[in-house]
Specification:
- Helix 6 packs across helix 8 and helix 10 runs antiparallel to helix 11.
- The protein starts with 11 loop residues before the first helix and ends with a helix.
- A five-stranded antiparallel beta sheet has the order 3-2-6-5-4, sandwiched between helices.
- A hairpin with an 8-residue loop joins strand 13 and strand 14.
- By secondary structure, it is of the alpha+beta class.
């Protein structure tokens, strides 16, 4: 598995990176019918009418593909190294090459659960932490890794362990709640976790805005019902904007957004893994309806730190203690997210504040200021995406007019030059002329060319709303 869209150079550290990620080719869900361990299973969800079920659940979706426990085991040399100590469900009946690929994949995942690359030692206190990462297949499809590191129940000093869930579902908040339940059961007994996970794995994944109830039995507490609800806006369910705006000012967020839109090399630096993963995922959501097509590693394992040398665009999360190794790599934006920092932008190209058209940049900042100082997650999820989505509506919202089709139901051809020359504002035209060369825009247009002319998505709806407002405004004047 390679980071998205990258052909890594075959030399030095980059060769090691390529070899490492090539091992991610396996499709973990291809053997769903294989034999699984006999475990006590909690009741699934309450019965419901088939029609209601169809409306409330996403067809073909499952909460997760598998859960692994990564433990720190003491080697013959006396150092602790991360190893897979449990996998649920087990995969049986695989042929030789499948087993080899599975072993490589699981081995590689240990790097993301314990990316520090330092010598661990037994601990008596350790605050649990949750973070996520993205795994990308050769074909470009993505899976999400969710990790909760904690100190296992027991007496005396002991090394921490990590629970990692691999899922095609992108919903950080949902899996964070699942990990709360896992941690609660882990403190009682390891055996308490797996009936809960088995029940969760068999439960249908809810559609946006809907809830699934999981029944789970805990000794001394009895049967509990855990309610898991997906946000209505499914494209926002993997993000918590509170972390982004806690770390950066509005002006700094806009500069990071500008650099991301032009697909530059950007490194985020922090001590906390959760901060790194949440900020990077939040930045990618600001691009909606466009999708980051290049390398994205929310927490770079130390052994793969040479990825910062790649000449191609990337979004990387790097541990604070490694910052000196990554900030001398030429043209890039290095963003320090750590508390007590002297400056936010450790390294920058210098034009970040002038990439976006001035008037539209000021409109984004004005829209962001509409939120309250103590804005809730719900308020941020309304105000923040709207500010950046409006920017794209005003800059490229006329794209559909420049897709020429012989018939409405046939694929079309995008007229790039006519598209950006149609803009009246010189500064906006200058920006769009650069943006149309980006891979994220190219992929967006390719998909739009293949869709029927009358098939509209969320972005097209926002464009129509904006155009109606402009017509009403014109009539009043």
């Amino acid at each position: 598995m390679l980071p998205p869209g990258e052909d890594v150079e075959d030399k030095g550290g980059m060769k090691r990176l390529s070899n490492m990620f090539t091992s991610f080719r396996v499709k973990i869900n291809r053997d769903r019918t294989s034999k699984e361990p006999d475990l006590p299973v909690s009741p699934e969800v309450a019965p419901m009418e088939e029609k209601a079920r169809d409306q409330r659940y996403s067809s073909g979706q499952f909460f997760f593909e598998y859960l692994v426990v990564v433990s720190l085991k003491k080697t013959k040399n006396g150092v602790y190294e991360p190893q897979i100590s449990y996998q649920f469900p087990k995969k049986d009946g695989m042929v030789r090459f499948q087993k080899e690929e599975e072993e490589k994949t699981l081995k590689a995942i240990t790097l993301f659960c314990f990316p520090e690359g330092i010598n661990w030692a037994p601990l008596t206190e350790y605050s649990s932490e949750t973070f996520s990462f993205v795994l990308t297949e050769i074909d470009g499809s993505r899976r999400n890794g969710y990790c909760r590191r904690l100190l296992p129940h027991g007496n005396g000093a002991r090394p921490p362990e990590a629970y990692c869930i691999i899922s095609k579902v992108a919903c950080f908040g949902l899996f964070s709640k699942i990990f709360d339940e896992v941690e609660k059961r882990r403190q009682k007994s390891m055996a308490m976790i797996y009936p809960f996970m088995q029940s969760l794995r068999e439960a249908p994944f809810p559609a946006p805005g809907n809830t699934v109830n999981i029944k789970s039995f805990i000794p001394e507490s009895g049967t509990e019902i855990i309610s898991l609800t997906r946000p209505i806006d499914s494209w926002l369910e993997h993000v918590d904007f509170r972390v982004l705006f806690k770390c950066l000012t509005d002006e700094e967020v806009v500069q990071v957004f500008a650099a991301t839109v032009l697909e530059r090399r950007i490194i985020f630096i922090a001590e906390d893994f959760g901060t790194l993963s949440q900020v990077i995922h939040a930045v990618t959501v600001l691009l909606h309806p466009f999708i980051w097509q290049h390398t994205l590693i929310s927490i770079v394992p130390e052994i793969l730190i040479d990825v910062v040398m790649a000449p191609t665009p990337y979004l990387l999360g790097v541990q604070k203690r490694l910052s000196d190794e990554v900030t001398d790599q030429g043209d890039l934006l290095a963003v320090d997210l750590s508390e007590g920092r002297k400056q936010t932008f450790i390294r920058k190209i210098g034009d970040e504040d002038s990439i976006l058209p001035h008037k539209l940049k000021e409109e984004i900042l004005l829209a962001l200021k509409a939120r309250s100082e103590t804005a809730s997650l719900e308020e941020l999820n309304r105000v923040v995406p709207e500010a950046f989505l409006t920017f794209f509506v005003k800059t490229v919202g006329h794209f559909a007019k420049y897709i020429e089709r012989k018939r409405p139901d046939q694929p079309g051809t995008f007229q790039k030059r006519n598209f950006y020359k149609a803009l009246e504002s010189k500064s906006t035209r200058h920006f769009v002329k650069k943006f149309v060369e980006m891979q994220m825009f190219d992929l967006f247009i390719q998909e739009a060319e293949q869709r029927p002319a009358n098939q509209n998505g969320f972005f097209e709806q926002k464009i129509a709303e904006y155009q109606r407002k402009m017509k009403e405004k014109t009539k009043k004047h």
